[in-house]
Amino acid sequence: MTKMTEQVKQGRTLRSRLWFDNPDNPGMTALYLERYLNYGLTLDELTSGKPIIGIAQTGSDLVPCNRHHIELAKRVREGIRDAGGVAFEFPVHPLQETGIRPTAALERNLAYLGLVEVLYGYPLDGVVLTTGCDKTTPACLMAAATVNIPAIVLSGGPMLNGWWNGERSGSGTVIWQARKDLAAEKIDYKEFLAIVASSAPSIGHCNTMGTASTMNALAEALGMSLPGCAAIPAPYRERAQIAYETGLRAVEIVHEDLKPSDILTREAFENAIIACSAIGGSTNAPIHIAAIGRHIGVDVSIGDWETIGFDVPLLVNMQPAGHYLGEEYYRAGGLPAVLHELLNAGRIHGDVKTINGKTMAENVRNAKASDADVIWPYAKPLKKEAGFRVLRGNLFSSAIMKTSVISEDFRKRYLSNPDDPNAFEGRAVVFDGPEDYHARIDDPALNIDENTLLFIRGVGPIGYPGSAEVVNMQPPATLIKAGIESLPCIGDGRQSGTSGSPSILNASPEAAAGGGLALLQTGDRVRIDLRKGTADMLVPKAELDRRRVALDEAGGFAVPKSQTPWQEIYRSLTDQMAEGQVLRGADCYQRVAQT
Ligand code: FES
Ligand code: MG
């Protein structure tokens, strides 16, 4: 090891000096330097010990949810410059939730891999992670965890509230209702499009507590962004102001050598799990949190979500679990006000360190909510026990259910048997992927009625590469017209964080990986028990064994061919959802030494 590499390892000098000011290797130093001078940077800026801060840019024309980060980056640069650093902005592989096929989940690990190589391979002393749309936040945090150089999250913030006919029109939530109205022929296609578009009135990410708002809140709950960052709506002046402050702080954390591993501790992850229940967060959170944990070396199991998070009450009255949207949530105090309630109730670890150098308790001690109808007090919550239920049985080793969105109607229809109020049984109707579902859902031969449980399989990480957000299936149009707007849905895929459906989802292992769902047949009876946490096909073991042999003889559960090289690579390496859907072997990639 050269002298300078040794000094970098010991934290006595900046890693960018290995490129720009390395007496051990003058030839390479000259080569590195000359090209970064060619657009006007001076030798002095690159060699006088100023920290070089990357701005990992996730916004582009392809990623509208994060596109205003292109503007915000100007304020980040000014902050970096004012704090004595030099900014290098660079692109992250585009990750737009709604615009990419087959699934954005397939691309999360690709964006992660790309960002890891950039952070490792270029002369960066620290990095600002520009987050927003669903997968951009975990992809950036996973990469920062792996390379473990000083890193700070800058959220892009939600869109302004949408409005339609005087009612709040929220991202995703409005679609789920409007598509039922379209199926019931209450509206036509033109009106359907207009209603959906009303939910996206400005720059920013989804304005509901979908996966974007959830993951940005959890980045803050983990301690990786400045306090209050996540909830500021994208167009507000405070958003550009916090961009500037994030730039300032990015330089300081390099001087302090404050790394992700100093912040992303087991306690920080427990705080994130608890915060997720209190905000009514997305069912995608367990996958992403497990993935971030694996890359920093903290084990967060699917069981942790129930043992740590289930009995936490719902405090945030925001769609899909509640009523309001991002603007009210921000005005009521945002995540700091939620954490304030949780801290006073003794639910979160207050002594964990956060990115501003203070503890979580110091950050949120005085952050009292200003509107108790938007952020409810811990002692008088919107709902008790708002976390995820983890279910297990012969259908899968684990799946989750978001109990905070179980409606009164659902409760009455499925959970009101006085002898057995936590369990329901029904006849399974099984679809193999969304195309099969769309082709057959209205087929009268399926005999779908209110005692039917809808299953979808072949939509997990391997089956529909990345895993599709399709488990919240709507019933046949005839049932919707008769007033039955939802049926219990179960599957090895995911659903949008904006969906208010209490589906049983994220089933692991998926059918394509040999999970029990592959053995299920239309007509089987299935029993779900929410108290015991079980989900089982009521099919004799001998019959299941027979089906398993037949499936193996047929070559296993059929999945469609890969259409791109990355799909093939991804399928051969991905873990299941319960493990975070990371690439197998990726745990050992953490490069703690910053050389
Ligand atoms: Fe990008 Fe929801 S689709 S944030
Ligand atoms: Mg989504």
Automatic annotation (TrEMBL):
The lineage of its organism: Bacteria, Pseudomonadati, Pseudomonadota, Alphaproteobacteria, Hyphomicrobiales. This is Dihydroxy-acid dehydratase. Residues 50-363 form the Dihydroxy-acid/6-phosphogluconate dehydratase N-terminal domain. Belongs to the IlvD/Edd family. Keywords: Iron, Iron-sulfur, Lyase, Metal-binding. InterPro entries: Dihydro-acid_dehy_C, DiOHA_6PGluconate_deHydtase_CS, ILV_EDD_C, ILV_EDD_N, IlvD/EDD_N, Sugar_Degrad_Dehydratases. Residues 373-580 form the Dihydroxy-acid/6-phosphogluconate dehydratase C-terminal domain. GO terms for molecular function: hydro-lyase activity; iron-sulfur cluster binding; metal ion binding. Gene3D superfamilies: IlvD/EDD C-terminal domain-like. It comes from Pseudorhodoplanes sinuspersici.
